[in-house]
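Data availability (excerpt). The following record was deposited with the supplementary files.
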Amino acid sequence: MVEVANRVVMYYQTHYKNGAFVSPLPLIGYVTHLLIAAFHLNMGNVGPDIVHLNDFMPSDSYFAPMWPEIAMMQGNGTKVLGMLGGAAGGTYECLSDDLFDVYYPALADVIRDYHLDGMDLDVEQSVSMPNILRLISQLKSDFGDDFIITLAPVASALKEGGNLSGFNYIDLEAVAGDQIAFYNAQFYSGFGTFFPEDQYISIIEYDQGIDPGRVTATVLTNSANGGGYVSPEHVVESIESLMGKYGTEWGGVGGWEYFNSVPDSDNPWEWAIMMHDAMQLQKARLEAKMAQEKRRVSSRMFRLPPNAI
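Predicted structure:
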């Protein structure tokens, strides 16, 4: 069962722009999942100082404007996850077998203190399969079945190509797929592209396959955010094509990152609105087409032959 279809996932890493707080509130009603980035574990630190959100502890006054707005977003139906890891190394070393009991409790405290709905595990360092399985299992054990666990592999890793994580995602899916809500696959930086949509399709059709409802295509929202940028217009083209192929339960798209999203970086929420509206429009078209076909079939079934009277 797909946790949420037609997702719009937005990564929220840069919280200030030109000294002004970047509010996530305009995303309400358009994004399904907001991923606060990036949480890190710092080896050698103790107590609450183990966990940092970018450069500061989550409790730092730097984030004072953010947490009340995060609660408002959750109150309006947006699921809010923390993104753990990313390009900065070290976090998952703290969660190795011999250090897990030292550093994991601080992470669990942050999840509880800030009422996070889940964690997005962005593993960009070599991690063993037993270690990632232990983390997933412990999170589920501590926070329950409704706690959302996602992973953020580079797209090529979902068909056993280029991979930054160390462990094999196809093997992980086979062993723990029932504990992973969906994958936020990175279709950029040379590891894949979302336009045209051939690479996305090749992931779904690879090996045992992953339900397309569980693969979110994460793209760059601005060419300044890295290599492999795809314009919003081309992302919409791929959305329409993939929903035509996979139907109304197709997974969705994600954006890295919020603060400077185009088409209008001064109003960065417009990217999310554009993606949301494209999926809703395509869903309405498909549902109308299915309803028309159902009426046509019903009409043929109940039409009496001329000699039946």
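Summary of structural features: The helical segments are 66-75, 100-113, 129-143, 169-176, 198-204, 232-246, 269-302.
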